[in-house]
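Fold these two proteins, one after the other.
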Amino acid sequence: MHIDIHRHSDTSLSNQIYFSIIDHIQSGLLQQGEKLPTVRDLAKQLNVSLVTAAKAYTRLKDDGYLTTVQGKGTFVNEQQEQAETPVPSSTSFDWQLSIPDYLPRSQFAQYHYVEEAINLSSSMIDPGLLPNRYLEKKNAACTSQTSSNHVEVWRNTR
């Protein structure tokens, strides 16, 4: 079982392990009854603390994904016994953090959206939205000066 963790992510390491194992189960990489590494082996493999690995396993057991048999190990439960994958409310959807790698593919689809580009270079800010009276005075002075210049140009072209 291969789990990628990103140490600089906003998502905790235990949550990354949790979602990665769920994704492995739902994608079929981990089959029902398959034995998982011990907490100690997982922690050593991922270079994380025992507490971090244990926290992920405990949460997976609480949510019905895993079961532990004393003296034998930790195993994947049957699919139909497992609860829906909860999406953490604290997840920041900053896609550069590789969070989609840890969400199940079926859950990820509901967060997909298309961004529309807005051309800001062709827009002008409404001066009425600006709080500074100085800008309004400058704008009025520029407008009147431009108008008088246009009149002068018009008179000179006749």
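Now the second one:
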Amino acid sequence: SQALVSFVLQQELPSEPFSLVAEE
């Protein structure tokens, strides 16, 4: 599910929040 979350964040938000999600 991480791939899905990171994919969505990449489209809506920059790569900053992606780092936070990657940790979880």
